[in-house]
Amino acid sequence: MKSKKKAALLSIGIIVFVLVIDQTLKIWIKTHLFLGEEIPVIDNWFLLHFVENEGMAFGFSFGGDSGKIILSLLRLVAVTAIGYYLYILIEKRSEPLKIVVFSLILAGALGNIIDSCFYGLVFTESTYYQISSFTLNHGYAPFLHGKVVDMLYFPLIDTHWPEWMPFIGGKEFQFFRPVFNIADSSITIGVLLLLIFYKKLFGTSNPKAISNK
């Protein structure tokens, strides 16, 4: 990218866009739905289904209170590292696709860190009988102990395995079972783009290096 300013604006624009959508949807879900409540969006295969988890992507939990702190700290370290790398890319005026990829990953990581760091401080607890509300005095958890809000649910296939199949015969099969959020989606899209275009993004452009292979 020829202009460092354009590169910076591209990165900031992506990060702000993802964070605004992610946090707006999370806050709306948190303050309008009971835990476990769901709203059909498109028939029964796209639902807004309110769940909370301890911080890992796609509804997975990690190791209780101590695991929660470790995961939150690891995320902070990862965000710092990715942010610094993105800064270097902007300084070097790297190609737009590389900036897009790491901006998406950074935005997604930031989106979930906001939940982990601050949601416990500024919201009351969500339950199956109580809708959460904003609070500045009596949050449901201390700093770094907040739960990540997930809501995107796509049960595209809901059936049972054939009875004749060993071990799993007759058991329920559902695709796609995990519930996730916009931040998770941003990370996933960034990583997929990184894998698909890895050679283009990180392939050597040194003619001598190519000729020596």
SSE arrangement:
Blueprint: H1 4-32, E1 38-42, E2 46-53, H2 64-91, H3 96-122, E3 148-153, E4 157-160, E5 172-175, H4 182-196, H5 198-202, H6 207-211
Shape: globular
Structural class: alpha+beta
How many H/I helices? 6
Biggest sheet, in brief? 3 strands, antiparallel
Q: Overall pLDDT, averaged? A: 86
Terminal residue distance = 29 Å
Radius of gyration, in angstroms, nearest whole number: 21 Å
Strand content: 5-15%
* Helix percentage: 40-55%
Strand order of the largest sheet: 1-2-3
What is the H/E order?
A: HEEHHEEEHHH
| Domain module count | 1
Low-confidence stretches: 206-213
- Structure summary, number of beta strands: 5
Describe this structure in words.
- The protein has 213 residues and is α+β, with helices and mostly antiparallel strands.
- The chain has one domain.
- Helices cover 51% and strands 13% of the residues.
- The protein has helices spanning 4-32, 64-91, 96-122, 182-196, 198-202, 207-211; strands at residues 38-42, 46-53, 148-153, 157-160, 172-175.
- Strand 1 (38-42) and strand 2 form a beta hairpin.
Task: Please describe the structure with a list of short key phrases separated by commas or semicolons.
single chain, three-stranded antiparallel beta sheet, 51% helix, 213 residues, 13% strand
Short description:
With 213 residues, this protein is α+β, with helices and mostly antiparallel strands.
